[in-house]
Specification:
homodimer, MgtE N-terminal fold, CBS-domain, Tetracycline Repressor, domain 2, 3 domains, 4-stranded mixed beta sheet, 3-stranded mixed beta sheet, 21 helices
Chain lengths: 447, 447
Amino acid sequence: MEASILIATLRDSLESNTAHLVYEQLNDIHPVDYAHAISEFPINNLWVFLSALPHPEQAKVFSYLPVDIQVALSTQISRNKLAPIIRQVSPDERADLFNRLSEEQREALLPALAIAEREDLLLLSSHEEGTAGAIMTSDYVMLSAEHNVTQALDVLRREAPDKETIYSAYVVDKERLLVGVVSLKDLILAPVTMRIKELMTHEPISGSVEDSQEDIATLIAKYDLLALPIVDNEKRMVGIVTYDDALDVVAAEATEDIHKTATIGKLDISVKDASIFLLFRKRVFWLVILVFGNIFSGAGIAFYENTIADHIALLFFLPLLIGSSGNAGAQSGTLMVRALATGDIKLRDWGALLAKECLVAGLLGLTMAAAVVGLGWWRGGYDIAVIVAMTMMLVVLAGSLIGLSLPFLLSRFKLDPATASGPLITSIADVAGVVLYFSIATWYLNL
Amino acid sequence: MEASILIATLRDSLESNTAHLVYEQLNDIHPVDYAHAISEFPINNLWVFLSALPHPEQAKVFSYLPVDIQVALSTQISRNKLAPIIRQVSPDERADLFNRLSEEQREALLPALAIAEREDLLLLSSHEEGTAGAIMTSDYVMLSAEHNVTQALDVLRREAPDKETIYSAYVVDKERLLVGVVSLKDLILAPVTMRIKELMTHEPISGSVEDSQEDIATLIAKYDLLALPIVDNEKRMVGIVTYDDALDVVAAEATEDIHKTATIGKLDISVKDASIFLLFRKRVFWLVILVFGNIFSGAGIAFYENTIADHIALLFFLPLLIGSSGNAGAQSGTLMVRALATGDIKLRDWGALLAKECLVAGLLGLTMAAAVVGLGWWRGGYDIAVIVAMTMMLVVLAGSLIGLSLPFLLSRFKLDPATASGPLITSIADVAGVVLYFSIATWYLNL
């Protein structure tokens, strides 16, 4: 069903006082779609839709609501009403929500949970944002190496309703150290009397609670895993991260990296929902920094004031030359930033890439020089044409090499290479462009 | 094991003529890691490592080799030797490889396959690149609605070794129309005599062969699916796309989008492996286009030559003002391009976002004006300070609104909003910056 039709149906049901019946009428609607649709309504209406759901669906739909709406519900709906839902939400979602609440709101929520759930919640929510610990769930199936296949399948059947996945089960020893992993596929193909220790994959690939979410997602993608077991510093199993979390992480990291290409700080919520002041804060820092970078270009121009005053026609070509330098630099910089982020290239590849970039940028410079030489001749005659063509060749080369090298330089000093955004590279390439242009012009015109 | 140690071990084994034994010695190494390591060797050595593997591992390791190495193997190793591997590779990987081979190479490969495999291969490889059809696999399990749970589990057990996943099985009718989906979890929890038609989810979410890979990945992420069934135009089931393919698609699309922010064309292979001419081709188009964009800025400057010649101090502030306009524009443009790509915002949100952007950009402009007014005073006195501050305020606003609107405008005319890259917005904002700066200066200085 189209989202707009669904919303209209919900609106009608509110008007005819049948909101509590609408979910049943919407035969087989997916909880994601229902969650998206009801999140368009004010909190009190949303609560009518949510509370009318059958119990298992309530937690599912709640999980798919945007976090800011979850927070609004947690603060505006009485604890007694909300507690049954919160108890059924998966532990990692619950920890996420908990981290967004104020101290007082947390205090109000905790008594609604059983002691074991409370401890689990406090543990899960103690991990730093951006780490594996912050996205893992404690809802996984543990098996003993001594179980046989029949016993293991019984465990899976019994625990399935409460677990995030039963397709991978983890084998731990008495100290809770992770010793193996077994898939449901292996279990249903194996002879029923086989012992888990004979069936399992030993020393499975695992992540650490402190690993970054990006590294965890990379492992999941590289090894095509359904879930990655997470261990603490003593190698004890503490949770799993599932493939669907990895998908969310990859998309969120891509958004962050794309924003960084334009010097925008990390934005946790949708641009549509972000407040004016939040957007201001995420944007103002680098804009002001770059103003000071551009002062160097201004100073470069001021230095050549006499040449410019004598040959004011030179100014016509200024935007075109420094623009091309910056654009070529943004291209090579962006290529490097992304390749470093995906692990496609390493620090040690700089030399080889530099040699290649010299040839690519040389070709680009020649093409660009050819593209503007006629324009130079038409606007300023032979001398200007020569100056513009020579400068174009050199600024494209200089911009490209600056763009290529800056991400490596930042990486080398343990800074985030993504800081080498298009605007930063453009600012630096602009200075190089101004200086190259007017030095070549001054030199050539005084020959 | 560290990649470098693994490669050293492989090298030693070549020298001591024990390459055919090395995989066994490397207890429990993951096929991905083995594939990465052997791909560092020349093809003839690589073949020694690959051919020495036990049969089921050969196909796994082969699948994880980079596609250019798969192609090199297909062309340099005799068909009789390679055929047993190719036959075991999963259909989607085989179709991928097939699409990279020349007509002759394809002709050589086909006889190695059974007739059914051949038809499947030709069908899979017939789909256009970038569509669901091109990444789907035909290795999925089909069930009949009339089966009971025991029968269904028998089917899964029998077919498991050859299927990409058995965690989702698809229920089709006699016309092969997709009527339901059932998960292995549901199957092992259900009473053994229950019929599939009572257990299955009816009308499951599905994609069409012609959908873009991006849309498919979005569906998989949105509904947290393990696999998405793909249907043809007559709604007949033709394949599945699994979550691991979705992860690869999301990462590849992010790379493409990040490259677009800097006007780089779609690059299918790593920047490390790309040839000089390929990189040149992917970069030159927009660089040349933007040169012509920058001519307008040059013309703007030429138009105000008299004002500039009379007040050459104005030039000092030119890079700083047009730079800020472009940077603010790149920020708001990038925010919109990404939000449109992820579906966070729609075309109809333009009005609301425009109102918000006016306020954000207004605040940014005020801050930036405050940041430069002192510099204006110091370099040029009271008049210049006023002109620079007023211009800064206006160019940040103008740049931001251009950056915000351009992606919507492109979307509106069914063009890719990502074409509104930083450099394109910067070029347009530059023109606005030049014109605003010198008109304000001319007007104010002639008051």
